[in-house]
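In the previous lecture we treated proteins in isolation. Real proteins rarely work alone, and many bind small molecules. This record shows how such a complex is specified: first the sequence, then the SMILES for fe (ii) ion.
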Amino acid sequence: MTHSDLPLWPETRVEIREGAVLLRGFALSVADELLPGIREVASVAEFRNMVTPGGHVMSVAMTNCGRLGWVTDSKGYRYTTEDPSTGKRWPEIPEAFEKLAREAADAAGFSGFAPDACLINRYAVGARMTLHQDRNEQDFGQPIVSVSLGLPATFQFGEVENRRGAQNVAVRHGDVVVWGGTARLAYHGVLALKAGVHEATGEYRFNLTFRRAG
Ligand SMILES: O=C(O)CCC(=O)C(=O)O
Ligand SMILES: [Fe+2]
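The predicted 3D structure, ligand included, written as tokens:
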């Protein structure tokens, strides 16, 4: 290992609240496998800005891989087995993605995680995700694994009951946040992306959200 291989900061585990943990740098060593994976998925299922049931075009561009993919349109939020843009099945979850998700869940204390859905979010400058709960999945006993790549962002993590009092968590390239158990339905979101250029992703932040949806 040369000194340039060393992580910028030690891999650290930060308890955000009960059931929610930030694993700093956990994905750093596999980031150069994840980014080509994203490119491959997006070559089959392109990034698109979906529309909420309320008619609002999302600022975050999205695509999916896995047996199930998360979509939204005028009919509502849901999971589908096919990409509505092409009518074809979502691409498979690349092996490196799945391995990382399993290992991160394990490290956070949720063993046996087997995701069937991976939502890929792409944030350009100004893109944001308002506070929300992830609740379109069938089994809230399964955790969520969220991987940050590229430009840094501010992830917000709050309570299960309401949107008030969310704390700001800085997430950087290679960071992984895992939440489950009593935190599974906690409100969370991402503040508007600041302009910047990252050596691995250019002007974007990518996020992989792994879930057991079915
Ligand atoms: O981009 C992130 O860090 C969070 C994404 C998220 O909450 C979601 O896709 O439901
Ligand atoms: Fe979410």
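Summary for your notes: The chain is about 15% helix and 30% strand. The longest strand covers residues 117-123.
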